[in-house]
User: Which sequence fits this backbone?
């Protein structure tokens, strides 16, 4: 197997040869460009590095995957558009899926031919996900699904959805949930984008009206979806923490370079950058332990909630400190106070406010830490 040093050099050389990728501001155009970028990465063998060859991957180690993430970010290259499939849904399909599901779904997920969304949260079941009400009732060889999901990223663009549904309302709420793989072209599905305060529209609300889903599209056994959902969320938190750490480091480097180039790295800016650097060192220490767990193939654990809490706080601290240097000009498109482009940094700051909500709110993560790590009684 290729050593990490050789692999890093090859990745760095390939990214340099490809050169910078122009990513348009228009959301639809950006989606299309990033989807083609995922196909480029896949064709060159850079997607699914740590996935098994049977699942369509390269059969390398998690260490190789981490190295490529670092090089991709440091080259200022964008992430592929299908991260929900690659980091969140795909690992659960690989682990719990049937041979047929893995063979038919995973190669297209890796290449970006199929984009996946995650149908977990509902208007009345976000942080308390186990209270979900979307139901699936038996109808011969199919299940009929009716309900509503929300905050479903890229649902209006996705070909498939990992959907949590209630299949047995008579048992405790975690026990009656099933995990379905749903074709988004199925009749009865309506996806409506929601404009966020950043101006983006990747979030959607999704309505399901007696959507017919074959039973063969169950992931795992009926009524045993909660354990798989826990695996999905754990995969999301671990992968996002490691990737986001590098992205935050590069963002902070870019901000410091911009301040230096304009000669505006004065006392106030140095203090703000210093606070951001302290936060980053905390995240760096935490992700060292995350990396150890990942390389040991320990799988999702309650410690993933600690990762998520630390990442939330650090991400919001870093971008709040940078945004504070923009002053009131952060609201003026195209302005460059202190050499910092208002568009990028105001967007990053606004988006960071959601970090403590998506992927499981901070309140829920603290409950998991209290009950599962510290052994405290339920409140």
Assistant:
């Amino acid at each position: 197997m290729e050593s990490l040093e050789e692999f890093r050099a090859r990745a760095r050389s390939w990214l340099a040869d490809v050169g910078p990728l122009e990513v348009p501001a228009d959301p639809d155009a950006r989606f299309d460009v990033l989807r083609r970028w995922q196909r480029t990465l896949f064709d060159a063998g850079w997607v699914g590095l740590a996935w098994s060859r049977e699942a369509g991957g390269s059969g390398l180690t998690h260490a190789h995957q981490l190295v490529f993430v670092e090089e991709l970010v440091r080259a200022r290259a964008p992430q592929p558009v299908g991260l929900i499939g690659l980091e969140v849904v795909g690992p659960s399909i690989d682990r719990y899926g049937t041979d047929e599901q893995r063979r038919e779904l995973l190669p297209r997920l890796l290449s970006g031919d199929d984009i996946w969304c995650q149908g977990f949260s509902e208007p009345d079941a976000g942080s308390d996900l186990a209270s979900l009400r979307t139901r699936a009732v038996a109808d011969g060889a199919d299940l009929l699904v009716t309900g509503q999901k929300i905050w479903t990223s890229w649902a209006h663009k996705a070909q498939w959805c990992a959907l949590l549904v209630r299949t047995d309302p008579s048992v405790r709420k975690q026990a009656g949930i099933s995990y379905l793989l749903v074709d988004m072209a199925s009749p009865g599905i309506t996806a409506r984008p929601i404009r966020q305060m950043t101006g983006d529209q990747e979030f959607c609300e999704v309505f399901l009206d007696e959507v017919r889903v074959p039973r063969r599209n169950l992931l795992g056994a009926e009524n045993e979806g909660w354990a798989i959902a826990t695996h999905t969320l754990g995969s999301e938190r671990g992968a996002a923490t490691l990737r986001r750490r590098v992205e935050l480091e590069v963002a902070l480097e870019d901000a410091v370079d911009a301040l230096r180039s304009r000669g505006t790295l004065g006392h106030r800016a140095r203090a703000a950058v210093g606070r951001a650097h302290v936060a980053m060192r905390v995240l760096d220490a935490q992700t060292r332990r995350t990396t150890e767990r990942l390389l040991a193939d320990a799988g999702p654990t309650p410690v993933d909630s600690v990762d998520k809490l630390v990442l939330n706080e650090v991400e919001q601290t870093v971008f709040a400190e940078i945004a504070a240097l923009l002053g009131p000009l952060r609201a003026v498109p195209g302005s460059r106070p202190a050499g910092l482009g208002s568009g990028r940094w105001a967007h990053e700051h606004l988006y960071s406010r959601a970090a403590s909500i998506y992927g499981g709110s901070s309140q829920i993560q603290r409950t998991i830490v209290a009950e599962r790590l510290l052994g405290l009684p339920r409140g």
